[in-house]
Amino acid sequence: MSVVVGADLGSSAARAVACDRQGKILATAAVGYRGSESWPVGRADPNRWLEAMLRAMNELAVECPAAARPAAVAVGGQTPTTVPIPEGLAVTVSHPAVADLGLHEVHAAQCEILRDELGNGFAPCEIWDWVLRQLGGGPFHGLWPGDPAPVGFGEPIAAGSSVGVTNGSHGLAEGAVLVPASADAFMGFWACGAYRPGVGHDPGGRTGGLGLAVASESVRDDMFSMPSAVQDVSIVGGPVNGHGRLLEWWASVSGLSIVEVLATAARVPPGAGGVLVLPYIAGERDPRWDKRLTGEIHGLSLDSGPEEISRAVLESTAYGLAHIAEKLADRGYELQTLVCGGSPALSRQWCEIKASVLGVEVLVPEKPDYSAAYGSALAAGAGLDWWPKPGAAHDAWPMPAMQTILPTHNPAYEHGYQRFIELGDSAAARLDLL
Q: Pick from 400, 382, 341, 372: which is nearest to 183 by CA?
């Protein structure tokens, strides 16, 4: 049986999936990065990325023996991230010096940080390209179609193309085709079918956001956009700064586990007993784009407890997505379906809240926390010509099975969303006064 492996090197763990030619997920595995707690802020040891990915692939082979000798291996991951060759700590997008820069300015700033440390005796590399080179790949830069190539990162080659074969190093069998995927965001959108106009995607994770597939010809010059997997379809919308991180913060300060936070939230009806959270614990990106904003909790009373705050935390993230959707609707872009990915999508309750606040059906893919890795598996299959590469004129890719969650109308959410907008406007106005 021919099997491909897709890997996603995220900020906290390497995730890998094994898929067959029909796109069926045969096995999944996730492995954290050893020693990551000691890394400086915004830095990472690429050798630990590689180590975790290889361990994840070994775990795949336990569940799916064919994955021990995959036909192709594709790698994608967090970006913008710059790895120095021949060696040194990588600079990630979390580095404080690049926090306020535009997407395509980040690589240049990261290279400058590395020059201050290493001089000019290094070559910059993307995370997926670095890993593929360790396994036998050539000095190419895997590039998503339509995405500008950073200067000096190697000869651009389309994501989903072969850059060589495994050379038998690091315990991998020889002869597997090596394929660059791309940024985790591109991979997640590809995996969930957000290349069909009207389909939106919340990638979840520690940040999140809302991207919506639209006809490229309708995109305005002043809008944030990125290319989809299909020719002439773009993704508009934008990222938020910390929906997943907000849940982690509340779990930490409340002394509850994530599972306990979700359980306590389920005991409270919509509206969270009047408690409302502004989720700007790390500033905010789309649609306010104001790094000065901070998190706030409103509506506390003597009757408020952890349950109400837990519920308000979940509702606030849905309101944040609705704020982006409203901005897009004002410009004529209608969200028809939302696909939820990342670890937050493992909570049906959280997905139900998003469906009802946004008023659209929500689709949850099989293994939603492996969406970016599944996108990498699509790249691996494209490298074998199982299906088209990204940038094709039509979609012909498999998709994981989807669970459908229908919205339920509730006036408490309508009231909560209006409060969310008014309180956010008030917070921004206070900052302007100060």
A: 372
